[in-house]
Design brief:
- Pfam families: AraC_binding, HTH_18.
- It comes from Paenibacillus roseopurpureus.
- With about 280 residues, the protein is an alpha+beta fold.
- The model is unreliable at about 165-170 (pLDDT under 50).
- It is globular, with a radius of gyration of 20 Å.
- It has two domains: about 5-160, Sandwich (Jelly Rolls); about 170-280, Homeodomain-like (Arc Repressor Mutant, subunit A), CATH 1.10.10.60.
- Helix 5 (about 170-185) packs across helix 8 (about 220-240).
- Strand 3 and strand 4 (about 70) form a beta hairpin.
- It starts with 9 loop residues before the first helix and ends with a strand.
- The protein has helices at about 10-15, 110-115, 125-140, 145-160, 170-185, 195-200, 205-215, 220-240, 245-250, 255-265, 270-275, and strands spanning about 25-35, 40-45, 50-60, 70, 75, 85, 95-100, 120, 280.
């Protein structure tokens, strides 16, 4: 039986991590679908943990600090911080868990995260895609896949740290408009949407909308619409028995092949692979 690397001290894992030649060292990367009645209580880990909520809700206290985590929340905690994960019996909980360490190298987490555990909400954000891609690469053997995992982890940490930077004063004016557009896209994702509609809804010009999205979301409105459709497809794959063609139709694609190409291009895996990555126990 293979040893559980996540429960070991970082130094103890080094000789067992094939294809890792430099930090960060990743000892677990998986997507987990929590069964009914599942919970973790008062756990101590000797490595770093990133926990991302793909779907659902869970209470996630770290030490004396309680957190309610919802879809899109990314939570980070350090080695030897007592924590629990408690899902509600009547609500789902699907998460991506990353466990990692830096060997004997120091990791400047205080400088990056200023003591925070809840790093932000990254629903429909490139960070969400990077997390899914990391899980996919982690399941593949070989040096190239391990290097992809390491690169993606560092990018995720950098994006999460950047998300903690202080907002500008102009956010007070622009953010309500941005939320208005995002809500409109979320409500109408199942049909074709033109940029003119977003101009009418927000009262902003096309160029300003594009600038606003690139600055605060990291993508264009139409790319954001695609991410909404991808995540709606993931939800349907998790919570329904719909066929792939039915899922494609529900998220605004009349052609299942176009939908399949889009999903793989944006996530790095097919919808079939996404379902296969789900771990239920």
């Amino acid at each position: 039986m293979a040893p559980n690397l996540t429960t070991m001290q970082p130094a103890e894992t080094m000789d067992m991590l094939q294809d890792y030649y430099f930090p960060p060292y990743i000892t677990l990367a998986h997507m987990f679908h929590a069964p009914q009645g599942w919970a973790i209580r008062n756990r101590l880990m000797s490595q770093y943990i990133l926990q991302y909520v793909v779907d659902g809700f869970a209470d996630y206290p770290v030490g004396d600090q309680p957190y309610e985590t919802h879809r899109g929340d990314l939570l980070f905690h350090r080695p030897n911080e007592l924590h629990s994960i408690i899902k509600a019996d009547d609500r789902p909980y699907v998460c991506i868990s990353l466990v990692f360490h830096f060997g004997t190298s120091a990791f400047p987490y205080e400088e990056l995260f200023k003591g925070k555990h809840l790093l932000g909400n990254f629903a429909d954000h490139p960070v969400e895609t990077m997390l899914s891609q990391l899980v996919t690469h982690y399941r593949q053997p070989g040096l190239v896949h391990q290097m992809h995992c390491q690169s993606l982890l560092m990018s995720i940490l950098a994006q999460a740290a950047q998300g903690n930077e202080t907002s500008t004063r102009s956010d007070a004016i622009t953010m309500p408009k941005l939320v208005l557009i995002k809500n409109y896209l979320t409500e109408h994702y199942s049909r074709e949407i033109q940029i003119k509609e977003l101009e009418d809804v927000s009262g902003l010009s096309k160029n300003y909308i594009l600038t606003l999205f690139r600055q605060h979301v990291g993508m264009s409105p139409m790319q954001y619409l695609t991410w909404i459709r991808i995540n709606k497809a993931k939800e349907l794959a998790i919570h329904s028995n719909l066929s792939f063609s039915e899922i494609a139709d529900r998220v605004g694609y009349s052609d299942v092949h176009t939908f399949g190409r889009m999903f793989k291009k944006k996530t790095g895996q097919s919808l079939t692979q996404f379902c296969a990555n789900l771990i239920y126990s």
